[in-house]
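Backbone geometry tokens:
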Amino acid sequence: MSKKFWKRNKDLENSISEDTIREEGKISGEEKASEENAHGAEEEAAGGTSGDDGKKSGRRQFFKNRHFKKGLFSAVAVVLVLIIAVAANALITWKDFSVDVTSNQLYTLSDQTKSIVKALDQEVTFYVINSESDVNGAYEQIFNEYKKLSSNIKIEYRDPDLYPNFTEEYVDDPESVSADSVIVVCGDKSRYISSDDFISYSYSSGYSYSADSLQVEQLLTEAINYVTSDETPVVYTLSGHSEKDLSSDVISSFEGDNYAVETLSLLSAGAVPDDCDILLINGPQTDITEDEKAQIETYMANGGKMYVFLDASVDDLPQLYSLLEEYDVGVEPGVVVETDSTMYTQYPIYLLPEIESSDVTQAQYDSNVYILAPSAKGLVDLSAGETDEDTTAAEESTDGSEDTDGEENTYTVTSLLSTSDGAYSKVDTDSSTIEKEDGDIDGPFSIAVAVSDDNGGRLIVAGCSNMLESSIDYAVGGANTDFVLNGINYLSQQESKISIRAKDLSADTAIVPAFSQKVTLIGCVFVLPVLLLAAGIVMVVRRRRL
């Protein structure tokens, strides 16, 4: 064979070998790629499973994170505080709960009022002459305090524009009815209380009026007593001896406390009337007769009640004084002079006696008020100085101190008002000096006493008739009238009514304009809670990002 042939044959073999190698390489590459793809798929599948586990593990770690726990706690705490605040506000609104933070407890009812209202067994309605939205807030608060005490207290508002003829049934002059006035009604009985009387005024040193006391509770409770009472006790004032007339203010106070006031002349009547609940003798200038004395003794022996005011300028009353002595009350001649400067004002005879603790005076004793008694007689307890010999002589005597069954009465004398130990009675009232002289009587004295016996009789003797004068009463903010009324209630055995004091308005008060009230309301009710909620949300978000 030629060389060319072998060369061509060799080239062909080489070409075939190269093609074979290429094919084999191609197949091998495809197999390798397939293996790699399969391996990659396996790794990808394994990687996916590992990623899911990682995410779950991350979430678990997030919930266990300390910052998340603090943020969650803060958020829950904010929500709970808001829920509690809303619930508390709803409960307070529902129960109409309030706290009186005024220094004089202007909106807090007295214990006497509470006991009277809680004991009501009849429905009593307060008709307030105004629309509910326009009524004075201070008055409304007091009205609502009554309503809280008893379900028998109802409050109705009568707007004069909507009910123009409503007051005609209860008031003689409907045109004079002022806004916020109250008509208290129970059954067929009613009492009108003018809002003009809710606040009492007094003259200041500059001869101008200033608010002195808030009398809403006093007037409302008096009205409740009146409309719920089946009977009206009668106070008879003795006449025929130039007695002093009771002032219109005193009579109004008696009537306001559900007492009727009548005049009695024993000379013409011949006896104390059967319907006499209290016999009042006010500063007689002449003495009673023996017959009148006997009539009074009979009345008292049957459980009668008597209130006696003495005029310090009158000494010649032997029958009256001997009547009082039968009840162990002695009357000293002259006028009491006080030496303790803390127990008089301006002049030593303008007494500010000490208020003793007793059933009559307890409310005023606790209230730290003053009673003004200008020109008073000194009273003494005759039983306090009795010896055994005196007691035996008294038991053997028949001076009218026996009851209707012939048994000796036992009297208990209690001092209500008293002087200091240094006081004395100036016997010679025409003397040129007020200093103590020979013949003057050493104290101490009682200025008022209460006497009770085992037969139901009761007696109060006050050594000063001037204490009933309006000008004297005004000087101590009505405390004298309270003292007298407390005595009347004690005598009629209605101790639950004793001394519902007017609330003093002399303390400084804050005046808040209406705009400031609205700003405060919006700020406290809306703005402040929103700010607190926003602050809580910001804190939670910030902590979650940490």
